[in-house]
Design goal:
Elements (H helix, E strand, L loop, with lengths): L1 H13 L19 H9 L2 H5 L10
């Protein structure tokens, strides 16, 4: 069964029926007021509700 699945997957790739790729999503927060931007970026409620992992970075 695994061999048949692999063969079917290879055919789908070869005929451009499917493709493989990497998806990266970014959410950026900015504001003219640096303190507001920091508060917004620290609020992880929205991201966690959407199953995002978050990582704060200071520039």
């Amino acid at each position: 069964m695994k061999e048949e699945d692999a063969a079917a997957a290879q055919i789908a790739l070869d005929t451009d029926e499917v493709s493989l790729g990497l998806y990266t999503s970014n959410i950026m927060v900015w504001d003219t007021d640096l303190k507001k931007a920091h508060r917004s970026s620290r609020s992880q409620k929205t991201g966690s509700e959407c199953w995002f992992c978050s990582k704060g970075r200071d520039l």
